[in-house]
Design a protein that fits this description.
Length: 173
């Protein structure tokens, strides 16, 4: 029953991931339309600023999510430390935790910088775009970010349930 339940949950997660990927493709199409509009209306250096911001948006959000996920895994492993855990493993986990914590703080600084750049880009676009186009741009940025987060969350859940299913299947003769 448990195996069946895990497989069912995995199917649901895979279907949900397909929906999110479909939304991401639609979002990318809207992004290309927006890019064409910005290219047409803005000066070349302003367009470059826009493109750098959009490219960095995905990189910084993905980096933050990845580091947060890795840090959470290390923290979970640290919670499982007991009297039987050898000193070398404890030391390794503590070092990885410190490193990942520093890296995540650096990534948060990058995100703050990215947020400042977004305000600059928004100001530039406000000179050229209609209110509706500016609203579309803001929705695009917000949707792109939320889809990246949702996609990463689903990938983590799928990975977790696949590991659970694999472990369960191995444990049954």
């Amino acid at each position: 029953e448990l195996i069946s339940s895990l497989r069912s949950k995995l199917r649901m997660l895979w279907e949900e991931r397909e929906l999110v990927l479909s939304e991401a493709r639609e979002c990318a199409e809207r992004g290309q339309e927006l890019e064409a509009t910005v290219r047409e209306l803005c000066k070349p250096n302003e367009f470059e600023r826009y493109m750098m911001f959009i490219g960095d948006l995905e990189k910084v959000v993905s980096l933050l999510l990845c580091l947060s996920s890795r840090l959470a895994r290390v923290q979970n492993a640290m919670r499982r430390i007991d009297g039987n855990t050898d000193a070398e493993e404890k030391q390794s986990l503590n070092e990885r935790h410190k490193l990942l914590s520093r890296q995540r703080e650096d990534a948060k600084d990058l995100k703050e910088n990215l947020d400042r750049r977004e305000r600059v880009v928004s100001g530039i676009l406000a000179k050229y775009l209609t209110d509706q186009q500016l609203q579309d741009y803001r929705c695009f940025v917000q949707l792109k970010t939320s889809l990246l987060i949702e996609q990463k969350d689903l990938e983590e859940q799928i990975k977790f349930f696949e590991e659970q299913l694999g472990n369960l299947e191995k444990s049954i003769p």
